[in-house]
UniProtKB/TrEMBL annotation, chain A:
This is TBC domain-containing protein kinase-like protein. PANTHER family: TBC DOMAIN-CONTAINING PROTEIN KINASE-LIKE PROTEIN, TBC1 DOMAIN FAMILY MEMBER GTPASE-ACTIVATING PROTEIN. It comes from Pinctada imbricata. Pfam families: Pkinase, RabGAP-TBC, Rhodanese. GO terms for molecular function: ATP binding; GTPase activator activity; protein kinase activity. Residues 1-327 form the Protein kinase domain. Keywords: GTPase activation. It comes from the Eukaryota. Residues 393-585 form the Rab-GAP TBC domain. Residues 645-680 are annotated as: Disordered.
From TrEMBL, chain B:
One of its GO terms (cellular component) is cytoplasm. It comes from Pinctada imbricata (Atlantic pearl-oyster). SUPFAM superfamilies: Macro domain-like (SSF52949). InterPro entries: Fy-3, Macro_dom-like. This is Uncharacterized protein.
Length: 826, 552
């Protein structure tokens, strides 16, 4: 992370070469557009950081293979400065040469050849320090083969570079004989020589300061005046310039920064009207003739300086202290991390706006990213705090690291990743290679060859290091969001993936000696009935309908759960979904499924089997924000034991409970809690399938029904004080048993006499009471036998929602002293 | 010159007093990080952890050195080639010169603004200014004049024909009486010459009028534009505009209403499994030329230009073009059938922006020669190596080329127009009888050509494309219900596939595709097609408006 300092953002644009007509790659698929290739290769350049190199910040694709590159830029370059005769001073000259060479030496170390050196791209910052720019052109264009124009100023090109000829432009004849031979770093040495010679031959001060690397702790505390190398002058300088370039660029975009607009303003996008460019003839093979070349596609090396004025204007009102937020307060646990800003009222108001708006609000994002940046520096100590903030939202800029933190990634992930053999061919390679070119390929970055390479490596790494699992189709989709976020950090992408799978897909894909498929289905066999129960629990009408037409989850929901929805949504929606998913426990995905169904409710209710199949064959557009909110609601309205699955991940040993201090009762996995006889127990899958309603454990019943009084330790979710009890207990035993002892406030509807021959409930006072409590969770309690289950099924049939059955019946409560003798019915 | 080589990397270390040697081939340049490769070696060969750092360092040095050597060798070879003359310096210089002058603006020849470019800019500005109305009315006035002339011509020619026919009938009736056989021949010849002469006269008059109109129009446009540029002359500009506004002609009496499409239906669809793009599809049953022909519009006794005309004019030089596919035979002319009808529509008014259809055909013919040269060349160098998508019938069509037939099935030529009602460009797609068969596949050259056309549309901002859904201009006998269903299904699926494929290139802009069904199709078939469309394409989520009133 380099500070912005006094740098400008420079924008350059060029066109990638369009492919000759209808070429295909070796795999038979159409060739990746060159602009995509460049986009993929460019990513690595973003990670290049050296005091003598300008940072690359962003690349964007425009229309028709146009590429726009944003990089650190300075207004002075060697060409203009040298004219003043500055470098006649030997010392300064040597410094200049040293700067250039240092920059190039770094490039050589990381295996990048500049080959584009010229006086105009050796920039000088306000202190006169050398900053090489445009050094990535040769690299990102794959030695110049992705563009039509030659790279480098011919004046400074080394003889061998000239001798090799310009990068071959594939024309109508396909001749594989002449491949472009890349130039090595030595060609740059020739160029420096020539440039320095030119400088010497014209009539040259500079305080060259070595890059000082302070420890990262520097950023965690307020600098003390006069200490830590902070001079007065440094403190007075504008705070924005002390932020990292990536951050400022991110804010610049939010402040209305528009690349195409900037180019337009400079007249760099002016092109001929397309009607004049159209070809006159095309052969049946698609070879066109008579088209006009648009001059606008030629290389114009003008650098457009992106004005930061608007950004600074927007941030001018922000108080200095906002740049250094306090994380810990001894008095109180930090109440609200959002300060009030003088310009736009309370930011916590912004926090209530829809996410899409928050992500576009510059001031809000400013506070969020500064806060998160500091929190991430303190990770893992600040894990609890990060967790808390993540429940508000996660700014896109820091998402990659926040996800890492939420997934509790720790340790030397890089060394671990390096150790894994990602190259040796294995038998899953073929499947991986088939899957990757079909995985989220609308995404520019993920469709690039660079991404495909990384994809393969991360997937192979996972398969190799998890021998107990098999590769399944869908793993690629799971990997995609992590890779897209951590494009330059395969190790982190891999670590996130490895942490994600056991959390949400525990043992889904265990290698089974008998048959892989069966192994897979085995886990789902439990997952899917639980999902069915949950649908019925929250929406009996829909549940009944789907059941009625035989549209069972097995027919549509398998890809949802196998990929945690990463296969059914586009990436920009997945990230929002997963922002929340990562905070929930392993049952949360089930709630998302119910939320999706509820969005399609009216359609589903009106559809028959065939139409439903057709509807899900290609997922309809889903409002993801609403889906997230609905699923949270559903999650909170579901007793935890209702989504109990015996195959969820068993509790980790010696869990660091204290590391996440503020987590609500709901974010913990049910399986992670100590179990007692009142807890849920495994239910055979066959039994699960025959039931329609989820079961609730005695533990949950006691807790949610507040049966044990306020002394109970585990506090459930925040609930309004005045609210009615969450539960309605329906006792279906006969009256005598009920009178002998029952759960307080429960109502008694004996099963044998409950229903009329027509299937309706026989009216009585208990039924009236039942009808008054439509929104409450209804716990059906019976003794041994299937009476309770059957009663629940009938209730569902009648459209009662939130019906569940007490696991193991009334007997389980005998050991507790909850059961009381009910007051005599008046 | 090798792009990469494999070098043997050797590493020795001592373990339990035993010296072990590891020797592995390493690809140079190493496509991955050294740490990664080292990790793999350690894993594969089960190396002790204490050699790890040493191994990494040695491997790093090794790779650096060998990479450098490779570059050096290649560089040396390149230089040697120049020294010993293997590389021809002149051609090298030429290549570099070409590379710089053709691809880099700084070195490229300054392109003088062509008259075309200038005019298009001026026109585009003007059509988006208050002068819009006037401009359109002017165009319209000119068009009416031409129409008038054409009307006269047609009447005259018709009259001539009538007279000649009468004369001829008379003569034939009297063969052997007043006329001898050779006299009749002579008469026929005279008739022919006469009609040639008169036809020629008319066409030259028409050409003259069009040229004059074109010149006048262009001059006027440039003049008005100049006026708008200089504020002092704004009065004269307004004057000019006003002068014309008053000169609108009276409407003609005769009713010339055109047929509106009989059946049409519109759909909004989503494409893509995860990322959805929205497009509009329209299914309409009409004559293809209805999209070209101007329909007159009478308001209060005045013939005024159609609203579509305005749209078309305003978008002519924009990035939002409309195009139409016409199915044609393999002869580049306009003598028969639809081609002739199309030419007549084009002739109806002066094209102020593009050359006449005939002149455009000349340009196309020239490009066609180039294309055929290229094809011949390619055929020669054709080796088994087929990496590109080729039509399965390419060998068969190459034979046809040898026989001299120039246009091949699946080829298309393109004409540009400013005077048609709803289109800017027309793709003339060459077909043959094979398209009438019911079992064509997605590899048929005409289908592949549709793909090429869609590709061009994405490349050149043609956002609205009209495709003859049955690949035929009219209904014919063989088009049974089964035939139609099969064809429609094929077309929908192919077009869907092509659009999804092109989305990678053209970004996520939404497009309009119009599927044209020939007149004469039955209503049941039309609704059948419409329901097939909804099963093949995914309609976007309909907004369900819940209202108390039931339908109808």
């Amino acid at each position: 992370m380099t500070e912005l300092g006094k740098a400008d953002f420079g924008l350059t644009t060029f066109f990638a070469k369009s492919h000759p007509n209808d070429k295909c790659g070796a795999n038979g698929l159409p060739l990746t557009p060159n602009s995509i290739k460049v986009l993929g290769r460019f990513q690595r350049l973003k990670a290049v950081s050296h005091p003598n190199l300008c940072n690359y910040l962003d690349v964007a694709r425009g229309k028709h293979e146009r590429l726009m590159v944003v990089a650190e830029h300075y207004r002075h370059c060697l060409r203009s400065t040298a004219k003043s005769g500055k470098y006649t001073n030997e010392e300064l000259f040597i410094e200049l040469a040293f700067g250039i060479v240092s920059g190039l030496a770094h490039l050589d170390r990381i295996g990048i050849t500049h080959r584009n050196l010229s006086q105009s791209n050796i920039l000088l910052d306000h202190q006169g320090k050398v900053k090489l720019s445009e050094y990535g052109m040769y690299y990102m264009t794959e030695d110049g083969t992705s563009v039509a124009f030659p790279i480098g100023n011919h004046k400074y090109l080394a003889p061998e570079a000239l001798g090799l000829g310009p990068a071959v432009i594939e024309d109508h004849t396909d001749s594989d004989a002449t491949l472009t031979v890349p130039c090595g770093p030595k060609t740059d040495v020739w160029s420096i020589g020539l440039i320095l010679m030119e400088i010497l031959s014209i009539p040259y001060k500079n305080g060259f300061r070595l890059f000082s690397a302070d420890g990262r702790c520097k950023d965690l505390e307020l600098p003390v005046f006069g200490e830590n190398g902070y001079s007065k002058e440094y403190l007075e300088s504008d705070h924005l310039s002390l932020r990292s370039m990536e951050e400022v660029y991110y804010l610049w975009r939010l402040a209305g920064g528009d690349l195409v607009g900037a180019l337009k303003k400079e007249g760099l996008t002016k092109s001929k009207p397309p009607i004049h460019l159209l070809p006159y003839y095309s052969t049946n093979e698609g070879e066109v003739f008579g088209q006009t070349r648009d001059r606008a596609e030629l290389l114009d090396s003008t650098v457009v300086i992106l004005s930061q004025e608007q950004l600074r204007q927007r941030l001018s009102e922000i108080d200095e202290t906002a740049y250094y937020p306090l994380l810990e307060d001894e008095q109180s646990q930090v109440t609200s991390s959002l300060p009030t800003s003088p310009s736009s009222n309370d930011l916590s108001e912004t926090a209530n706006l829809p996410l899409v708006i928050r992500e576009k609000d510059i001031e809000y994002q400013f506070h969020r990213i500064i806060l998160y940046e500091r929190l991430l520096k303190g990770y893992p100590y600040t894990r609890g705090h990060i967790w808390k903030e993540a429940r508000v939202d996660i700014p896109p800029l820091v998402r990659a690291h926040v996800w890492g933190a939420l997934l509790e990634i720790e340790g030397d992930i890089y060394a671990r990743y390096d150790e894994i053999d990602k190259e040796t061919p294995t038998q899953t390679d073929r499947q991986i290679e088939v899957d990757i070119p079909r995985c989220h390929q609308y995404h520019e970055l993920l469709s690039s060859p660079a991404a495909h390479g990384k994809f393969k490596r991360v997937l192979k790494a996972w398969v190799v290091s998890h021998p107990q699992y098999v590769y399944w189709q869908g793993l690629d989709s799971l990997c995609a969001p992590f890779l897209a976020l951590n494009f330059n950090n395969e190790a982190l992408a891999y670590s996130c993936l490895s942490a994600f799978i056991p959390k949400y897909l525990h043992k889904f894909f265990l290698k089974d000696n008998s048959a892989v498929i069966q192994g897979k289905l085995f886990r789902l066999q439990e997952y899917l009935p639980v999902f069915s129960h949950l649908i019925t629990f929250h929406d009996p009408e829909l549940g009944n309908h789907l059941d009625g037409i035989g549209f069972i989850p097995d027919l549509y929901a398998i890809p949802w759960f196998l990929t945690m929805y990463a296969h059914v949504f586009p990436l920009h929606k997945i990230v929002h979904l997963w922002d929340t998913l990562l905070l929930g426990n392993s049952s949360f995905p089930l709630c998302i499924g119910v939320a999706i169904l509820s969005q399609l409710r009216s359609q589903l209710l009106s559809f028959g089997f065939n139409e439903c199949i057709l509807l899900f064959s290609d997922m309809p557009e889903i409002d993801i924000q609403r889906c997230v909110q609905d699923s949270i609601k559903i999650f909170c309205n579901t007793p935890k034991s209702a989504t109990y699955r015996q195959h969820a991940r068993p509790p980790k040993k010696a869990k660091k409970e204290e590391s996440r201090p503020n987590i609500s009762y709901y974010s913990r996995d049910y399986n992670e809690q100590p179990s007692s006889e009142l807890s849920m127990e495994p239910i055979p899958v066959e039994e699960l399938k025959t039931e329609k309603c989820p079961r609730i454990s005695a533990e949950d019943l006691i807790e949610l029904g507040e049966l044990s009084g306020p002394s109970h330790t585990k506090s459930p979710t925040k609930r309004k004080q005045n609210s009615k009890p969450m539960l309605l207990v329906i006792d279906v035993r006969n009256q005598e048993d009920f009178a002998k002892g029952s759960i307080p406030n429960s109502i008694n509807i004996p099963f044998p006499t409950a229903f009329s021959p027509e299937g309706d409930l026989n009216p009585c006072s208990a039924v009236t009471s039942l009808n008054l409590h439509k929104v409450q969770v209804k716990v059906v309690v019976g003794s041994r036998g299937r009476n309770a289950t059957n009663f629940a099924i009938e209730l569902v049939r009648l459209g009662y929602q939130k019906v569940c059955v007490l696991h193991k019946g009334i007997d389980v409560l005998r050991s507790t002293n909850i059961l009381t003798v009910p007051p005599v019915d008046l | 010159m090798p792009l990469s080589v494999e070098k043997e990397f050797e590493f020795t270390f001592i373990c339990k007093g035993v010296t072990s040697r590891l020797s592995v081939p390493v690809p140079i340049p190493l496509p991955q990080a050294v740490e990664d490769f080292a990790g793999r070696l350690i894993g594969c060969h089960n190396l002790p952890c204490y050699v790890e750092d040493d191994l990494k360092k040695k491997l790093d040095d090794f790779v650096t050195n060998e990479t450098r050597n490779l570059y050096d060798e290649n560089a040396e070879e390149a230089l040697n080639k120049i020294r010993d003359g293997t590389t021809d310096i002149d051609s090298l210089v030429e290549k570099w010169t070409k590379a710089y002058t053709q691809e880099v603006k700084q070195y490229a020849k300054v392109e003088e603004a062509s008259e075309e470019t200038l005019f298009s800019e001026v026109y585009h500005n003007l059509i988006h200014s208050p002068a819009l109305d006037t401009l359109l009315n002017l165009e319209h006035t000119y068009a009416l004049t031409i129409e008038d002339l054409i009307d006269q011509r047609d009447k005259d020619l018709h009259h001539l024909e009538e007279r000649q026919r009468e004369e001829m009938e008379e003569a034939v009736r009297n063969v052997g009486k007043t006329y001898r056989d050779d006299e009749i021949n002579l008469l026929a010849q005279r008739h022919f010459e006469n009609s040639q002469l008169i036809g020629g006269k008319w066409s030259s008059e028409l050409t003259n009028l069009k040229d004059t109109q074109k010149r006048e129009f262009r001059e006027w446009v440039v003049k008005v534009h100049e006026d708008t540029q200089s504020p002092t002359k704004s009065t004269s500009y307004l004057g000019r505009v006003r002068a014309l506004s008053n000169a609108l002609p009276e409407a003609e009496e005769e009713e010339r209403s055109s047929q509106a499409p009989i059946m049409e239906e519109s759909f909004t669809i989503h494409l893509g499994a995860q990322m959805k793009t929205t497009h509009n599809l329209r299914l309409l049953c009409t004559d293809a030329l209805d999209l070209c022909r101007h329909k007159t519009h009478t308001v209060g006794g005045m013939v005024i230009p159609q609203p579509q005309r305005l749209q078309t004019a305003m978008s002519l030089y924009s990035n939002d073009l409309c195009a139409l596919i016409l199915m044609v035979d393999n002869r580049l002319n306009s003598y028969t059938g639809l081609k002739r009808a199309f030419a007549k529509v084009c002739e109806q008014s002066t094209d102020f922006h593009f050359p006449d259809l005939d002149q455009q055909f000349l340009i196309i013919e020239h490009e066609l020669t180039l294309a055929n040269d290229y094809r011949a060349q390619k055929k020669q160098s054709e080796d088994g190596d087929k990496v590109s998508i080729k039509s399965s019938s390419s060998s068969a069509s190459l034979d046809a080329l040898d026989k001299g037939s120039k246009l091949q099935t699946g080829d298309f030529y393109l004409t540009k127009h400013s005077n048609l009602s709803e289109v800017h460009a027309v793709f003339h797609l060459v077909t043959d009888d094979s398209i009438r068969s019911s079992d064509i596949t997605s590899r048929h050259p005409v289908i592949l050509s549709i793909r090429n056309i869609i590709k061009l549309c994405f490349r050149y901002d043609i956002n609205t494309l009209t495709i003859p859904l049955l690949l035929s201009n009219e209904m014919t006998e063989e088009m049974t219900i089964q035939w139609c269903q099969k064809r429609v299904e094929l077309m929908f699926k192919c077009v869907k596939g092509f659009m999804m494929e092109m989305a990678t290139y053209g970004g996520h802009k939404s497009r309009n595709i119009q599927f044209l069904v020939p007149l004469g199709i039955s209503e049941e078939m039309f609704s059948g097609i419409s329901s097939m469309l909804t099963t093949i394409f995914r309609l976007s989520n309909p907004v369900v408006v819940k209202s108390a009133t039931p339908h109808r």
